[in-house]
Amino acid sequence: MTCRKLKILGLVFALSYALSALADFPQPIVEALKYLSQTTAAPSLTFIQDHDVKIIFKNMKELGPLYATNDALTVITEDDHQIIFVNSRHEKAPPQALAAVISHEILHSDRQNSLMEEMVAWTREAQTWEELQSKYPELKNIPIGKYPLVDRENAIVSLIQRHQLKIEIENNPTYQGLPLHSPGF
Ligand SMILES: [Zn+2]
Where exactly are the structural domains of the chain? Predict the structure, then answer.
């Protein structure tokens, strides 16, 4: 077999591997991951495939009253699998906004969290959103209140611009009691 044929076979294999991995996700998540691949957070796509990360929509109330209003949440299962739950109210959100929140949650890949990990994750989420906004400027014209997830992304960008992100995270009741640092952060 020629080298060229081998190369093509390799490419087809890599592509079908990537697509079959994506096929497990709900369609809006598949779309979101395609947008994620266009950002500086693209390496997370390989991480998702290599670590068999699951991303699913979830009625957060089912996880308990504490989590009812969470936009997204990462759980590490007993057999060390990362599952990202995205609030099912965001199923119709623009996939670019889903990409942004996924780029945040994917960083929570172990059981330990910290204020610094949240700082990095929120900053990355805003960066993903801003990169996609400059690629797709129509995202800047979405009216406030149309998609709660878009409102969230714009709010995080605004917090960073006003140098308020650290204070926001420190005062967020969800993060009370978190250490300053965790492995890798
Ligand atoms: Zn987080």
Answer: 23-174
